[in-house]
Amino acid sequence: MMRSRDILGFATRAATAYPMRTGLMMLAMAIGVAAVVLLTALGDGARRYVVREFSALGSSLIIVLPGRTETGGVGAGSFVTNTPRDLTVDDAAALQRANRVARVAPLVLGNSEIAYAGKLREVMVIGTTRGFADIRNYTVAQGRFLPDEDWRRGSAVAVIGATLHQELFGAEAALGKMIRVGDRRYRVIGVLAASGSGLGMNADELVIVPVAAAQALFNASSLFRIFAEARNRDAVPGAKTQILDILKTRHDGEEDVTLITQDAVLGTFDRILGALTLAVAGIAAISLAVAGILVMNVMLVAITQRTSEIGLLKALGATGGVIRLVFLTEAALLSVAGAFAGLLLGHLGAWGLRLMFPMLPAYPPDWAIFAGLGTAIVTGVLFGVMPARHAATLDPVDALAKR
């Protein structure tokens, strides 16, 4: 009767005796596990990136969009709506009457050219009010943010992002300098602290001006969006109701706006990207099944090559059960080695993704690591059953005769 240590040693020597065959089987398993780890890291990284971006806004944000969506869900279509009636600065000002709303910031958005001392570049211009900095958690590194003034009159002042400050002014002080945006001139009163991108806007490359000044610049009377911040997270449902009531009253009883909360957007993107991560993990897992089939085929070939060896084991008293266990152990060893090699490759790939895209937290989730390893080992052993059973049924006399 062979001891467990003997079976393990025999299976190890058998695997290392054929390096080409062993390498191919391990490579097949490694590719499957690496694909699961890398793709789930990419999918889960995208999910965490979106969650982080929206979480930066705080959990009390309510975004008011012009136009009414027909469905109650939030998706890509929620951001593109039919607009029977525009949102105006007066609408935004009226929302300040809601006692569950802490801050309101109207938003006008457009692209224009900025110029200073012969330097030109295209920039995104935001027209808003003082409350926008608090809602978006912007920090002013130099000077101050927009003045607290009448929203209907726009002072010729601007706040610029950190990158614009560096590109236009270099080491020179920006505060008090006059810049040209489009066909108008503005005095720089503030420079934002470097913060990077968020919700498709890179704050470091923004020019922020009073909302009325932006409307004059872009010859627009309507707003792009209205940002409202509830007093706290628990006040969000009540604030939504108050906002809808106020805007319905102003819009002749029509509910022609769409309100989106941070939680709703987060929940939708979390579900979509979570499902996508599971889908790509499932696709990657198919390669593990292919690897299992390769294990089975190679093991069947190995049995043909080792027929006399099997016959000798049986002649020495090894039972069919022992023979099965020897070949299953060999298949398990190869699967485990390939799985851990794939895990290393997957982590190296995820590390490469994080180097190429620093903003993407491409870390494989724990469940994907355990699922990849477990599937690889189970697949290898499962597909090793048939070759092991075949080896166990060989007649010892016939097996010894085949040299």
Offer a quick outline of the entry.
The chain has 403 residues and is of the alpha+beta class. It has helices at 4-16, 19-55, 89-95, 131-135, 162-169, 211-218, 236-250, 262-305, 307-315, 320-356, 366-392, 396-401; strands spanning 61-66, 101-116, 119-128, 140-143, 157-160, 178-181, 184-192, 197-198, 201-202, 206-210, 225-230, 257-261.
Describe the structure.
- This protein is an alpha+beta fold and 403 residues long.
- It contains 12 helices and 12 strands.
- Strands 2-3-10-5-7-6 form a 6-stranded mixed barrel. Strands 8-9 form a two-stranded antiparallel sheet.
- The protein is elongated, with a radius of gyration of 33 Å.
- The model is unreliable at 70-83 (pLDDT under 50).
Task: Fill in the keyword field for this structure.
alpha+beta; 12 helices; 403 residues; 18% strand; elongated; six-stranded mixed β-barrel; two-stranded antiparallel ribbon
